[in-house]
Amino acid sequence: MFQVRFHGRGGQGVVTASEVLSVAAFLENRHAQAFPSFGSERKGAPVVAFCRIDDKEIRLREPIMEPDALIVQDPTLFKAIDVCQGLKRTGYLLVNSNRPLHELHLDKIVKELPAGHVLTVPATDFAMKYIGRPLPNAALLGAFAALTGVVQLKSVVAAIHDAFPAEKIALANIAAATAAYDAVNAQAAA
Amino acid sequence: MLKQIEGSRAMAEAIGLCRPEVICAYPITPQTHIVEGLGEMVKSGELKGCEFINVESEFAALSVAIGASAAGARAYTATASQGLLYMAEAVYNASGLGLPIVMTVGNRAIGAPINIWNDHSDAMSMADAGWMQLFAETNQEAADLHIQAFKLAEELSMPIMVCVDGFILTHAVERVDIPSQEAVDAYLPSYDPVQVLDPTDPISIGAMVGPDAFTEVRFLQHYKQNLALRLIGDLAGEFKAQFGRDSGGLLRTYRADDAELLVVAMGSVNGTIKDVIDEMRADGIRIGLVTLVSFRPFPIEQLRKVLVGRKNVVVVEKSLAVGMGGQLALHVGLALRNVAGAPQVHSCVAGLGGRPITRPSLHKLFRRALVQPWEGTHFLDLNEEIIAKELHHVRKVRRSGPTAENILRRLSGSEPAHLPAAE
Fold first, then answer.
1. Under 8 Å between Cβ of B298 and B290
2. Which residues 63-92 of A have a C-beta within 8 angstroms of B?
């Protein structure tokens, strides 16, 4: 089982991101379970969502306490809460930022995780470029596919297409996801 | 058709396939996306021959369902928590009149203290109101149980609550097989009421009944629930024949055949418990599970058959009867009444107000049942340090203040604000 925890702020679409990832896994004939951490919804408040992916039925209903990957939509959350709590030593950390890792004071966690498992991606920049609004979801999911290989880009693209009934918005999000996917692969090759 | 879909949306689609004719709902918290989904389906024309009525309260929602059902319509509504309490008077009326309404309860805690999260307090508060109550383990089962519920309710002319863990199931996106309209039509015949308000053939429903007849009317309600004990299993069997999967039934077991320790639970927590059982089985511990689907009618005989001959039974439940303990544990004890050599029953209250029930905590609990079985009610993951501090405070200070606020302050690391400095 591969478990992903999403951290963001109310209004950034954290819950949607976890659901889209679950659809991407579903499209690969895998089992997936996406669920929000339940609280009173407030714009700007720290929000957590979860996604489990497995090859067999997922029965577990506890929150994800030891994630295999963290997707952090807002790097200011590192100062507010213990984002990395429970992250497995073999895990991945993907952060939405246009700044390098050392500027985010993440050196400690970089050392603890395998090389290449921690990455920043300027998802909001991609979102502004392709969607015109600061919604980093799609780009982060594209980057996640490149970083972990847990789902394929084409599944993420299909899942985004499903999630947005308006064709224009869907295509803009797909462009952001694809750009982030390519950027991560280019970074890895470099 | 397999879909990756939110639980509430899956239930809405399943309910839509049952061709309800009147859906009434109060759309404000506590409510789920189920009625929102159904409202969209009615508006878009996807769900034909159905009137969606937005009402001003939960009391009105069920009252309208009662009127619709009495007029011969297949009626549906949904609520949870305080919304169900606000319905209470109509809840008893629906069952007392024998009207086959189907209602989803997206299980949540009841305040005070205010809490919007999941537990089973709401359903339990209405367990004796004369409705049948079935609890879903997964969103697949939640969808399937609604299809069975309309058939069951209408066959007996008795209302039914489909109980689904709020948030944990209603808000989870997972794989659900949504059946075809043809398959549901083949399973569920159109509603043929046993009583109907019809201007061309006038009758009254809801007579005043005195001491000479009240017991008989109540007895027949009880009798019908006893009939349901057989019918629920039969309908689950028919469901499997039509749709090819196991859903519903009175109860089912998991790795129970040679188990010395059996866990009994209702709802979504069964999934987590199954994972724990697999892990403990790998360590050679003979542990199994009884998933109780039907709480009303309560399957005393069936449960007894499963439990007798075991050493220990642990009941894990998301509800508490204050001053008594766990309700489900009390029921399980009843199933073992007057049985020689009955297993020991150990009661555990867990997951109140949405507290996660985790594998590590369940491991500890089940292992304790093997080596150090307990009497009375055990509260899973109770913060004993905070409790001790608060009890000490209450003993020392007469005007000790509101409990909830005191506990919250202690959790955030400070003493209750009004505490004298000398304390």
1. no
2. 63, 65
